[in-house]
From TrEMBL:
The lineage of its organism: Bacteria, Pseudomonadati, Pseudomonadota, Alphaproteobacteria, Sphingomonadales. This is UspA domain-containing protein.
Length: 264
């Protein structure tokens, strides 16, 4: 299915200009509708502010300034005429979740804010079922060169593979990577054949896992191969932070040097 509706996590954070620039370049071919959701909520001193009317006004002004700065940057960078904004002072996770039920993809970026709470992309992927593309910090607006599909037999990997085909169609090279004894080379070849029949340039790679840490193996391989994006799935039977290959979800999200695409 083509990507027609993209939600942008425009909550105040570091790297917001890089996020807008990447999406603008990415959307040149897609011409998707862009929905920028920019909600701000303070990290600290909220209870004290609520007990003091002057403090409440002060935190509201700070949040409004953060949102205005983000919107100003997005308005200058995003060229698509089909771009809308939804802004407010509230917890950003719930605000973004409300926009994901009919979206094809959420795009965010690795970054934090000294002033504001930043959304949890794993939680949003799992709660909404909408694929989330979290860009690496410092990303440049450039085409997708190498995409790594992290494969482990199961519904999560299948869902991620099918959901990401429109994104994979924009990559120059696709590596289907399996790790250790949990996946056979035969299965990786089947996934490659599936992608090739869709006209996608894929090849299979099976890596050893002597330490029993498949997440680290995939991250090391992706970094060494210069991968622009890692495709992965999340398993719902585990806690939010342990849904991909044991604790690999935590490892992926903590690695700000990689962009990853995940489905819940």
């Amino acid at each position: 299915m083509p990507i027609r509706d993209i939600v942008i996590d425009a909550s105040p954070k570091e790297g917001i200009e890089q996020l807008f620039s990447w999406v603008d370049r990415f959307n040149e071919r897609l011409q998707a509708r862009l929905s920028c959701v920019s909600y701000a909520w303070p990290k600290s001193d909220l209870e004290e502010a609520l007990l003091n009317p002057l403090g409440t006004a002060g935190f509201e002004r700070r949040m409004e300034m953060e949102i205005a700065s983000v919107r100003d940057a997005g308005t200058k960078i995003l060229k698509s005429p089909d771009t809308s904004w939804c802004t407010g002072i509230a917890q950003p996770d719930d605000a973004i979740l409300d926009h994901l039920h009919t979206a094809d993809m959420l795009v965010s970026i690795a970054g934090s804010s000294r002033q504001c709470v930043t959304p949890d992309p794993i939680d949003l992927a799992v709660r909404s079922g909408t694929p989330v593309l979290r860009l690496k910090s410092g990303i440049k607006a450039a085409p997708i060169g190498v995409a790594v599909v992290a494969w482990k037999d199961g519904a999560a990997a299948r869902h991620a593979l099918h959901a990401s085909r429109a994104l994979l169609a924009l990559a120059n090279e696709i590596q289907v990577v399996g790790v250790g004894d949990e996946v056979a080379m035969r299965r990786l070849d089947e996934v490659v054949d599936f992608l090739r029949r869709s006209g996608l340039p894929a090849r299979a790679i099976h890596l050893p896992d002597p330490k029993g840490r498949p997440g680290e193996v995939i991250i090391d391989h992706a970094l060494a191969s210069g991968a622009d994006i890692v495709i992965s799935g999340a398993r719902s039977e585990r806690t939010l932070r342990d849904r991909l290959f044991g604790n690999a979800t935590r490892q992926f999200t903590q690695c700000s040097e990689l962009s990853w695409y995940m489905t819940g």
